[in-house]
């Protein structure tokens, strides 16, 4: 794939609310292996351990008082430049990468990405697939809404979320060891492989690179303990 000539409008998922783009095989297998090698070569203090996954922040740690901008290593910055060249962030260059590691049976609860970021999120998946599920926000605490559609994210793929999908739809990854490709998965025609309806895909360890633009940055140390 020649990324310099990639017209992102050709990759819109037309079977979902606005707006999502899905590019299968956005990176090569060699790039995937290089990314994995670099991530796991990071020093242990770079990892933050959560109850259901672990993560790395590159570029700084977003905060409502501003992100203290940090340099991003060249092995990772090349992908920020590729995303920038797609012109999906209003001319803003991405400046932050959240790396999440998901083992089988690990996921993330339904959430919105929030106001700290330019309203576009781009995610490169490496190592394994997952299924990202979407639901409308609950009206109140008692209204626990079930997912209404989902995307299959293949290894080496790129997903871009904007507009209603960014602002109005919660997204989650369920804690499963395998995924069933049922009728709720609406992007199968965009995928690189041809999947049989009802197929079961076993998960392996997946790394996601969520590449975003944080508008509010600072070069100075912030006292985040003060409200």
Automatic annotation (TrEMBL):
Listed GO MF terms: dioxygenase activity; metal ion binding
SUPFAM superfamilies found in the cross-reference section: Clavaminate synthase-like
Protein name per Swiss-Prot or TrEMBL: Fe2OG dioxygenase domain-containing protein
NAD found in the keyword field: no
Cell location: Nucleus
Residues covered by the Fe2OG dioxygenase domain: 93-215
Signal sequence annotation: none
InterPro entries linked: AlkB-like, AlkB-like_sf, ALKBH6, Oxoglu/Fe-dep_dioxygenase_dom
GO annotation, cellular component aspect: nucleus
Protein family: Belongs to the alkB family.
Domain of life according to the entry: Eukaryota
Co-factor requirement: Fe(2+)
Organism of this sequence: Arctia plantaginis
Keywords carried by this UniProt record: Dioxygenase, Iron, Metal-binding, Nucleus, Oxidoreductase
Record keyword Zinc present: no
Lineage, highest ranks first: Eukaryota, Metazoa, Ecdysozoa, Arthropoda, Hexapoda
